[in-house]
Amino acid sequence: MSAIKDEIAQAVDRLGDELEALSHRIHANPELGYQEVKASGWLAEFLAAHGFRVERGVAGVETAFRAEIATGDGPTIAIMCEYDALPGIGHACGHNVIATAGAGAGAALAALRDRLPKGRLLVVGTPAEEGGGGKIRLIRGGVFERVDAAMMIHGWDRWIPHQDLLGVDRMTFEFTGKAAHASADPWEGVNALDAAVQTYNNVSMLRQQVRPTARIHGIINHGGVAPNIIPEFAATTFYVRAAEIPYLRELKRRVAACAEAAAKATGTTLKVVEHDTAYEPMKRLERYLDVWRENARRLGVTLSAEVKDRLGSSDVGNVSQVVPTIQPLVKIAPDGTPIHSRPFLEAAVTKLARDGMLTAAKAMAMTAVDLLGDGGLLDKIRQEFRSTS
Ligand SMILES: [Zn+2]
Ligand SMILES: [Zn+2]
């Protein structure tokens, strides 16, 4: 195994300039979720040029793709690429690095395909992580069926093999009241904005009584059209996050109760809009993570301890609930740089980002080789997957 790992590292290094150029091109052309036409096209072309059979528009998602090489009967390993940007600020989550690390791992393995253990390698292009739930649509579309293990990396300010992710669900509350002149006949009106404000305040109080890992945060999306009209319509949207799915459900019920109480108090009618894109918590699979740790250390990476209080959410959590999955964090920014910030946006195209991307590509390709080559290892990972909630 050692010889092929050295060759993987060399293959990734040979691709370094091409991968960095692609990463910078994606960064310079930020596209929002489900609109990543350029990024998905460039990645698909890159993988096709490196010998993958590429299918675009999988699971009815135009900017998703599935690239495959097969070396014979054996397990199927999927490496995921994200490439959507954030509204307003662009690639401040560094998804350009995720995309090219995944594509680079795939291309390096394709270069050594004659010598790989038997199996199938997939590189899956997963759009719209930032709220759109692209991976949820791909799961529903069957893209992860018959996949034995999946992996992706995410840029961060240090190397951390596993970071917990909170489950998150979204709820919108629409209140309908009755318009009236706000000065001449206010008693004729039923104020929908009051219901939205009351909901916000109820949730603010609820927040004092939730577990420290839970997060509830929201906005008023619509609060009326003019100050001299009693608002006849108002809407609020909340994100509810929790570390476990049952607690997430409980919190959702309690947040809904905040809106119901507000509707009752104000005399408005309430419509609850469910978003159908709940992100699930991330499973932690120690045996699988050990494989990553070993390969990362082999590449000279110093691994940091897990961060316990900076918790986000991702649709990779949903993938981790259906197939053994890891999402290690990779250092692409100076220590202390938060994601979704201007400094992280700038860091995502530096030498540090290039180094992180190439090292991550190597570690993912090596991990894929370990999984393909050792059926016993995959069995142990599957066992842990089944026994982990
Ligand atoms: Zn993000
Ligand atoms: Zn991200």
Give the biggest sheet. 6 strands, mixed
Instruction: Please bin the fraction of helical residues.
Output: 40-55%
Low-confidence stretches: none
Domain unit count: 2
**Strand share of the residues?**
15-25%
Describe the structure.
The strands form 3 sheets. The chain has a 6-stranded mixed β-sheet with strand order 1-2-4-3-5-11. Strands 8-9-7-10 form a 4-stranded antiparallel β-sheet, with helices on one face. It has a two-stranded parallel ribbon with strand order 6-12. Helix 3 (about 95-110) crosses helix 10, helix 5 (about 190-205) packs antiparallel against helix 6 and helix 7 crosses helix 10. With about 400 residues, the protein is of the alpha/beta class. The mean pLDDT is about 95. It has 2 domains: about 1-165 and about 280-385, 3-Layer(aba) Sandwich (Aminopeptidase); about 165-275, 2-Layer Sandwich (Alpha-Beta Plaits), CATH 3.30.70. The chain has helices at about 1-30, 35-50, 95-110, 135-140, 190-205, 245-265, 285-300, 315-320, 340-345, 350-375, 375-385, and strands at about 55, 65-70, 75-80, 120-125, 150, 155, 165-175, 215-220, 235-240, 270-275, 325, 330. The radius of gyration is 23 Å and the shape is elongated. The structure holds zinc ion (ZN) (2 copies). One zinc ion binds near residues 93, 129 and 154.
